Every structure is written in C-alpha cells, then in structure tokens.
Amino acid sequence: MGAAGYGGSEPNRAAVGIPDRRIAALAAIYQPPKIAPATLEVVDIPGLASGSTAADGRGVKLLAHLKDVDALLHVVRCFEDGSVPFAHATIDPVRDVETIDLEMMVADRQTLDNKISRLAKRARMDAEAARHVAACQKVKDGFDQGIPARRQGLALVELADIRECNLVSLKPVVYVANIKSMEDAGNTHVRALEALAAAEGAEIVTVCGRDEAEISQLDPADRPEFLAALGLQESSMERLLRAANRTLGLVNFFTAGPKEVHVWTCSRGDKAPVAAGKIHTDMEEGFIRMEVIRCEDLIELGSEAAVARAGRQRVEGRSYEVQDGDIVVVLFNQ
Hints:
This protein is of the alpha/beta class. The protein has helices at residues 22-30, 58-64, 93-123, 127-144, 156-162, 188-199, 209-217, 223-229, 236-247, 272-279, 281-285, 295-301, 304-309; strands at residues 12-17, 34-36, 39-44, 72-77, 173-179, 203-208, 250-256, 260-267, 287-294, 314-316, 326-332. The protein has a three-stranded mixed sheet, sandwiched between helices.
C-alpha cells in the first residue's frame, strides 16, 4: 500500500515464505525430504490519491480489500529521481503517510456512522448499545483531529466496542522506506519517515527495490557474497517479513524429524494447547502435554539424544506459553 502508486483497481495476493535461518540448520540435522516454512499472505493494493475515498470512489473499494488483514505494510517513496514517475512534484514521506491515513479515516468514518445509525434508537434504553455508540463517537472525534484509530490510545473496552467495525486505520503499520540505492538509506526522507515511525512505535524497514530484484535472481548460494558487497547480512525482504511477524505478535515454533521440518506460527502468549491446535485441531482438543527442546540447543548439540542427555529437554503442560524457537512434540488423546 502506498500513496498514488500504480493505477490498477484490483489487489494482488501472494503467500510469502518467512525467512528463518534455523530451518537450514534443522534440515542439516534431520535431512528431511520436505521442508515447510511459515508463510504470510500479502495483499497488495494500488496507491491511493487524496480524495479517492470520497463518495464511494475507487479508494473505498480498494480499502475494502484490507478489512480482513491483520497489519499494513505502507510503502513510502524516499528517494529523488525525476525520471521515476510520481504523483507529486516533491518527495515528502510525512505528507504521503498523512494522505493515506486521511483516506483510511474517511472510509472508517462511514463505517462508524453506519454503526451509530444502527444503534441510535436502542442506545436510548440499552447501556451496552450506548457504550458502543460513545466509543464510535470518540474515534470519530479523533478523526476530526487527524488522528487515525491506531494512535488514539483506546482502552481495551473501547477496542472491544468497535471491533466489529474492523477499522482499517486501527491496524498496526510497518513502514517501508522505498529507496533507489543503499546510498539513500540515511537521506533526509528516510530520517523523516524514521521519526514518524518512532513517534507511533511502529517498525520501519528500508528497501532498495533494484537490489532486491537482483538478489531474487541469484542462486541462494551466491546471495551472501552479494549482500556482503552491499554491507548487509540479510536482504531487505528478510528484514521486512520479520518486522511484519513482530508487528503481528507472532512466534515461530517447529516440528522436526526425518520426514519433515515444519515451521508453525502462533500468537505470542499462546498456551501450549492453542499452539498445538495450529498443527491439528485434534491436538488442542485432546492435549495432554508437550515435549519441548530449544532450537539453539539442538543445533549446538547435534541430536535430540544429546539434548536429552544434557538435561535440556522439558515436558510442559497446558499453562506453558510457547516460545519462538521451540521444537515441540505434542502428546494428545485421539
């Protein structure tokens, strides 16, 4: 998503594997025929111009595609080059972010108005309905001050009261500073976007599209040398996908063996039965216990038997919160 980008009317969708260097290390230990990385589904919509969400315009239809996503990746141009078309005569990342925020708030306002209208009569006699209306109005008042819902500091009860509205401006954002070359990484436009992201506690990743295109064409074995020549340890796409994972509050855990190394995803703080349910619903319903070893322990010691001999294998119950990097075996009633 970005300001006034390509002019299509339909989104592009793709499932993208989340890079995780632990996968290769586990594959070297188990030599499985199958490897299944964790994935993120990405929905890419054309850029929005100022006013495009007015009167059920093109922007409203495009933003509707984002209703069901969990976070936003906002691509912002941060380089000067007159030969590359752009909607504005100047480069101003803060202006472009504010443009998108405004369009999202316009669309969200209509959603809130619809809920207020639907509950208006019942709110006169029903305390819960009245509370929902008040929460909707509070968010609208924030919009009047130019503050998107995600930056309004809403209380948990207020978030619950507006949850069904599925506001686009409430979704967390990862900012993507789009640069022409790595020489632009510290320019004034990137710094301005970094300051904006820091002010709202958001992540920012700098991406050079040209370099990423070249990296994608290389054999995986040749990529480290290319990255090293750029002064990087990993590609921008790797950093971006990990930033998205952190913003979503996700952790990766593993099942691993001679048949498959599989990366699973759950929310940070999920208990063992919930995480087991990501593997199979029967595991959540019939959960008994979870055997856990740490990925780094297995990589260090080289085998499950060695991890067990070192006393680093654990058995956890229903209250255990699964951690990033756990390798699990779930025992359950079938």
